[in-house]
Amino acid sequence: MKKNKSILILLLLFFVSCTSVNYFRVNVEVSRKALFDINQFKEIIVTDFFIKKEAESFDLNQELVNYFTTQMKQNLKPEISSRRISFPDEEIFKDKAFWKNILPDSQETAIFTGIVDYTQEIRKAVVQTKKKADETFQRDKAIEERRFYTLNLNFYFIDAQTGEVLYTQTFRETQGYKNPKQTGAFAFYDLADMVKVKLFNNVLGTARIQQRYLIKD
Amino acid sequence: MKVTTMHKKFTFYLLAFLFLPLVFSSCSTNLQSNQIQFGITAAQRGLWDEAIFRWKKAVQSYPDSAAAHNNLAVAYEIKRNWDEAKKEYETALKLSPNNSHIKTNFENFMKNLEAREEEDTNKKNEKK
User: Fold this and answer.
1) pLDDT (tens digit per residue) in A31-48
2) Which of A130, B14, B91, B122 is deepest in the core (most CB within 10 A)?
3) Chain B window 49-78: which residues touch A at a Cβ cutoff of 8 Å?
4) Chain A residue with minimum CA distance to B34
5) Cα torsion for A6, A9, A10, A14, to the nearest 10°?
6) Is residue A6 part of a domain?
7) Shortest alpha-carbon distance between residue B127 and chain A (Å)
8) ipTM, 2 decimals?
9) Based on the structure, what is the number of domains in chain A?
């Protein structure tokens, strides 16, 4: 019996040595270069945005200016300020002279502006519902409603000295809400947050974490 | 009765004789990969220079160790030494082409490298 036990221990030792984990995971920080180096400027001026369609319950332009001015102050090195500018039409973004004349004596200053489109959509669908035990009139199908908000933002960084567009990018974010009382103003902040993360990733060049395997043998 | 006891003793020693070399051979493999293991421990504590030193030693002693080359590649990647990392990954893959961990590491590394090169090209074109 004792000898059998010894053999079993030997076998166990052998299998343990063969089946132990032979790799380890480590995190690698993968840096992404900024697509547009925002820190080359001393000052960024956030102007009004060209609104394609006004939001129903809030001042979309004012909210955008306030939101991005605050976020840029918190996250970017250059000095941030805001200025009111009225736009005649969408084509103004291509007009170098217009932008050049806004801040004629400025140096190392960028203008941050853009075109905005904020839409709301209600989608309805027939969905299966759970039957309640005490319900006399049992239903297993119902119509459910979802509110979808879409924020379409086309940003422009314009050189205040030359009026040239230095960097432009479009972001489109959509979010659906089950709550029928969801307001456009609240949804706007969720969507603006999503856009902000992507925009700042592009202008700051943030790092991503990836995993690599270290092998034992 | 005596014959049976003798027989049992013989079986035991025979089995022990067969299995012990297996156990020790696996242990000796572990002894061989001591540098690799030491490097892993160092890497897990963030001591990547020490890890590189250990894995370089392992590569010198065992140039056919895919693990040592792979780990060295990861360390070079962390140190942002892309050329050396690529070289080591390629060697590791040559030595062990079917190792899924090395393959995954190399694929991810190459994706990042290509993205980085593309960004550099775009920046150069923008400057022109």
Assistant:
1) 777 778 888 899 999 999
2) B91
3) 65-67, 70-71, 74, 77-78
4) A216
5) 170
6) no
7) 12
8) 0.75
9) 1
